[in-house]
Amino acid sequence: MLNLTDVPAAVDAVLDEFFQATAPILESIYPTVGDGGAALREFVMTGGKRIRPMFVYAGRRCPGDKITVSETPRDGDETLRVCAAIELIQACALIHDDILDRSDTRRGNPTIHRRFEALHRARGWGHDPAHYGDSAAILIGDLALAWADDLFHGALPVAIADQTTPPRPIPFPASAVWSQMRTEVLAGQFLDITNEASGDESTTAAERVMTYKTAAYTVARPLELGATLGGADENMRRELHGIGIDLGVAFQLRDDLLGVFGDPAETGKPSGDDLVAGKRTALLAVALRSADDAARSVLRESIGRTLDDAEIAAARGVLVDSGAVAEIERQIAVRRDAGLARIDVLDCDESARADLCALAHRITDRSR
Amino acid sequence: MLNLTDVPAAVDAVLDEFFQATAPILESIYPTVGDGGAALREFVMTGGKRIRPMFVYAGRRCPGDKITVSETPRDGDETLRVCAAIELIQACALIHDDILDRSDTRRGNPTIHRRFEALHRARGWGHDPAHYGDSAAILIGDLALAWADDLFHGALPVAIADQTTPPRPIPFPASAVWSQMRTEVLAGQFLDITNEASGDESTTAAERVMTYKTAAYTVARPLELGATLGGADENMRRELHGIGIDLGVAFQLRDDLLGVFGDPAETGKPSGDDLVAGKRTALLAVALRSADDAARSVLRESIGRTLDDAEIAAARGVLVDSGAVAEIERQIAVRRDAGLARIDVLDCDESARADLCALAHRITDRSR
Question: What ipTM does the predicted assembly reach?
Answer without folding.
Answer: 0.94
